[in-house]
Design brief:
The chain is mainly α and about 140 residues long. The protein has helices at about 1-35, 45-55, 70-75, 80-95, 110-120, 130-145.
């Protein structure tokens, strides 16, 4: 009887060890996937990233793409870079949205209105990670043309 009890405990411990190992492997895999999400290497500064963007896209802008630009990048950018971001956002938001005869292109804001929108929202510290395109498209849905 004691022999079977020891075997049962050993089997249970092996099973738990496999489950723990599988859980740990899944956790490590998830951490590896998420470690690169939305981050930039420690050695590069915002200015270096902007310089690479200008060289790659031959346009002046505050960030890397219309979908990734944030309020923090807006605040760090120059007026010329902000104007470039507004142009890119207008093209992004005003692109074709479907085959409906009523709405063929997305709504856009005037550059002046969009500039004021970003200046007012991005002035707040809590908004530093806000995506510019989300602010832009939501405002354009109400007042855009």
């Amino acid at each position: 009887m004691v022999h079977h009890a020891i075997q049962a405990i050993q089997t249970l411990l092996r099973r738990r060890a496999r489950q723990t190992l599988a859980s740990a492997a899944a956790l490590i895999f998830a951490a590896a996937l998420l470690s690169g999400c939305g981050s930039v290497s420690q050695g590069s500064t915002l200015g270096e990233r902007q310089g690479a963007t200008v060289a790659e896209h031959s346009s002046i802008d505050v960030g890397e793409s219309a979908r990734s630009d944030t309020c923090a990048q807006w605040k760090a950018g120059t007026v010329k870079q902000r104007d470039g971001a507004l142009i890119r956002l207008r093209k992004f938001a005003g692109s074709p949205v479907g085959s409906s005869s009523a709405l063929q292109y997305g709504h856009v804001l005037s550059d002046e209105r969009a500039y004021r929108l970003f200046q007012s929202f991005c002035a707040h510290h809590f908004a530093r990670a806000f995506k510019l395109y989300k602010l832009y498209e939501r405002a354009a849905a109400f007042v855009g043309h």
